[in-house]
Amino acid sequence: MRRMRFSVIIVALVTAAGLSACDGGSDPTVSRSAAPKTGSTDINTQPRSALKTGGTLNLSIQQWITQYNVGQVDGTQGDGQAILAMTQPRLWYFDESAKPSPNPDVLASASVTGTNPQVVTYKLNPAATWSDKTPITWQDFATQWKTRNGTDKRFQLSSSTGYDVITGVTRGADDREAKVTFREPYADWQQLFDPLLPGEALDTPEEFNTGWIEKIPVWGGPWKIGTADKTAQSITVVPNPDYWGTKPVLDSIVFRSLDSAAITDAYLNNEIDQAPGRQPDDYKRLASAPATTIRTGGRWDVTVLNLGSAGPLADVKVRQAIGAAIDRDAIAKAQSSGLPFAVHTVGNHFLMPSQDGYQDNSAEYAKLDLARAKSLLDQAGWTSSADGKSRTKSGQTLKLTYVVSASSTATFPQLIQNMLAQAGITVELRKVPGNDFFEKYVNRGSFDLVSFRNVDQLFPSMSYPVYLSTGEQNYGKIGSPAIDTLITQAAAETDHTKQLTELNQIDTQLWQEEHSLTLFQTPQILAVRDTLANFGAYGLRDDRQYTEVGYLK
Questions:
Q1: What CA–CA distance (Å, rounded) separates 202 from 144?
Q2: Domain 43-88+214-290+526-551 in CATH 3.40.50.920
Q3: Sequence-distant (≥ 6) Cβ neighbours of residue 285 within 8 angstroms
């Protein structure tokens, strides 16, 4: 799916060529080049005048979308957020370096107009109107703040970060101007209110929590949902006829829920128009497909192993033992087999390699050291059995449950299972239905180990709910008062250089707590129809809600 600026999690679909951790790095049939740097793009940029009017774009999604409200706890799934953002007012566009600029269809301007306290003034396009014919006003900003600031616990939030430091949203010079006042400086204010949602459709707990289940009740963007067929697992979006701004070139976009194993065949059968080539076998098949261009880019996209904190994992020494028993380099090497460039490990929770301020803070907490892993388990009281294959404590076997989506073809969970077994940690791989993976397991913290992709967290504050000890997206409930204090400081730091220093301090402590292991930066390798323009590997840039996507004349 396309680049999103929410805190988005996606089930990990990347696979290794095989389970051997030591033979995954070489394939004489593949010509290697340097991996694209974070931010690089490849989308076949063309002017609208070069495009045909109309046409349908067919894409795959991971699962049927249950919750579309991005602010609700079950609304963090990436595909749902992507579709939502097409149908709602987007405040900002982002260039290749992730620099934001106002979307003129929605914002006439937005800027910091006061510093003590911080005040941000938003001036809306006077033509901006919801699909129920009501104008988009400052009151929509006020409702989004009130429902997402965390003070009313009846609203089941995915995150209150940023909204919780706002003290008020008031009317400006007229109804089309909103003034947002902050209790303290807030560096990532451009991350808030985007997309802007219709206040009247989510101003009660009932509407907020259940009013967006399997539907989007009000439109305010260039698209709307035309049909949603749950039996066929397909969702079709069509142009919103009431949209006042830039109209889409295409007639429709069809999203089909497909298991990852079916995507390549669907592309080769001309059922969809884009397919990921992250799997070696798929890459080989897609690279030789007719009328196809392989597009590569560097997205903010990292595959993460998340740890729980219940049972044996309540002991940080056990969590640290996991970090010492896993060979991340071998996993990345296996992921690289058969691909046109090597996959990088990532040693930072906030920044991708080649991003400004990136440094690898993982140190010994994510470096293979089997002797250290065993020593840590000994210190935690988990003694090795006579055969060395398992460990016990007070008659209990050290056994962890690794929850895996049944729709995923990822094989690195088996690699991790084998690696942890070398330290005496038994891991059960529990496959669960793809449609339940997030809602019933990840979001509820029902796991010991779980892996997925975190994508497009370009604003550091988008990650804060994941790492705060009481954060709504801290599914493993691992944190500390020291981390919370540093996050509060970083959120208020408006000096970019100083903020980067603080982020690396936070990251160092996250590794020490073994909150999660960032495994590798997921590459953008996409097979795309060669007649498609303004579409493909977006990197860090914004795709303008697909309004510019079309087929060449």
A1: 8
A2: no
A3: 264, 268
Q: Omega before 195 cis (within 30°)?
A: yes
The length of the chain in residues reads 553
Neighbours of 28 (CB within 10 A): 5
Q: Which CATH architecture has domain 92-206?
A: Alpha-Beta Complex (3.90)
Q: What is the pTM of this model?
A: 0.82
- HEC readout, 122-179: EEECCCCECCCCCECCHHHHHHHHHHHCCCCCCCCECCCCCHHHEEEEEECCCCCEEE
Residue 310: count of CB within 10 angstroms of its CB: 12
In which band, very low, low, confident or very high, does the pLDDT at 11 lie, cut at 50, 70 and 90?
A: low
Class level of CATH domain 301-394+451-521: alpha beta
CATH 3.40.190.10 domain locations along the chain: 43-88+214-290+526-551
Q: What gap in Å lies between CA 126 and CA 137, rounded to an integer? A: 9
Of all helices (H) and strands (E), which one includes residue 115?
strand 107-115
- Residues in a beta bridge with 226: none
Instruction: Indicate the pairing of strand 399-405 with strand 426-432.
Output: parallel
Beta strands in 422-485 (DSSP E): 426-432, 449-455
CATH 3.10.105.10 domain extents, the chain? 301-394+451-521
Q: pLDDT tens across 350-404, in order? A: 999 888 899 999 999 999 999 999 999 999 999 998 887 899 999 999 999 999 9
Sequence-separated (6 or more) residues with CB below 8 Å from residue 329: 345, 368
Q: Which residue type sits at 195?
A: P
List the beta bridge partners of residue 449: 307, 402
Question: Which among 338, 340, 343, 275 is positioned nearest to 526, based on CA atoms?
Answer: 275
For residue 183 the two structure tokens come to: 């209790």
Q: Taking phi first (over 0 means left), then psi (-120 to 50 degrees means alpha), and beta for anything else, what does residue 193 get? A: left
In the chain, list all ranges with CATH 3.90.76.10. 92-206
For 541, which DSSP code? Answer: S
Most confident of 21-30, 32-41, 179-188: 179-188
Exposure pattern of 155-175 as b/e (b: 16+ CB <10 Å)? bbbbbbbbbbbbeebeebeee
